[in-house]
Amino acid sequence: MVSDIEISEEELQELEEELKKFEESKSHKAEQPKREKVEKEVKVYTKTPGLTRVSTGILELDEALEGGVPKGSWVAITGEPGTGKSILCIHFAWAGLKAGDPIVYVTTEAEFRDVVRQAKIFGMDFEQFNIYDISSSREPSETPSIVVIDIFGLLKIARQMSESISLDVESTRKRRFAALDIQTLTVAIHEAYKVLGVLKEGGKTPIKHVRLIIDSLSAFWADKPAMARKYSYELKIATHRENVTAYLVSQYAMTTKSTFGFGLEHIADGVIHLWMDDVETKKEVIRYMIIKKMRLTNHAKHAFRVEIVPGKGVVLTPVK
């Protein structure tokens, strides 16, 4: 049936405008959840006048740091075993991969394949990216995203250093570099920069921002903790660059509840400390975190409750 109702041009225009407003209103409502999701995502970089901040990969921690760690900082991650130090490193590396930052991952506490397995549990698939182990006998077929330096890689570098030293012909004994030696670590990191293609020929400063993770530094002074401060200075002088933001893990002694090896916290630009309640008293594992210091940052002063959640990793809740 054809309607005999007549509609004027003015009425038709009004109806079209109302319909347009209605459609815009529906579109706005549909976009709301998406917009909220975007706002909750971790931003890989936050720029403020004269300062670039690098994401930790954990939203709540970034917010507590005014947007992230200042680029070029050395951050000490301290705490006793089981508090989540290595998982913080995984988050930091994952955020870097998403940002396109090359990663140098030094692991003395576990094989890197175990790091990869743990990361997958938290929804971070490192195997999406090209990984190169510096201990490998083959050359990388393409520029990797991650260069791994484990105990075997350090041993390889130590042997190369020992064999390359030219001493006076009268010398009957060559210096033997140890795998867990700060000079060996420094050379290995420099070699990793070469593999990543971030050095100009003959240069020592990366031309692209690199994330350096050392988990843990305590292994390098385990037999001589009194030398920790000296070794920390040596490492910082040799490797600290404006284009390198580093996470340096340091164990806390179970007996004294203090850093295993005095010194790293003093030379670090930031210190993020983790601990847990006494499990024998509480009868459960309750973890905490606090930012003890972070230069150029008005950081949160309160502690956070730390939950380690499958599919997410570290989730922080303020303790006030």
Helical content band: 25-40%
| The CATH architecture of one domain | 3-Layer(aba) Sandwich
Per the CATH scheme, the topology name of one domain is Rossmann fold
Distinct helical segment count: 9
Give me the strand/helix succession: HEEHEEHEHEEHHEHEHEHEEE
Low-confidence stretches: 1-5, 26-40
N-to-C span: 71 Å
Radius of gyration: 26 Å
CATH class of one domain: Alpha Beta
Total strands: 13
Structural class: alpha/beta
What is the oligomer described by this structure?
Answer: single chain
Average the pLDDT over all residues and give the rounded result: 85
Question: Can you give a write-up of this model?
Answer:
With 320 residues, this protein is of the alpha/beta class. The chain has a domain at 72-165 and 173-290: P-loop containing nucleotide triphosphate hydrolases (Rossmann fold, 3-Layer(aba) Sandwich), CATH 3.40.50.300. The protein has nine helices and 13 strands. The strands form two sheets. It has a ten-stranded mixed beta sheet with strand order 6-7-5-8-9-4-10-11-12-13, sandwiched between helices. The protein has a three-stranded antiparallel beta sheet with strand order 1-2-3, with no helix packed on it. It is globular and about 95 Å long.
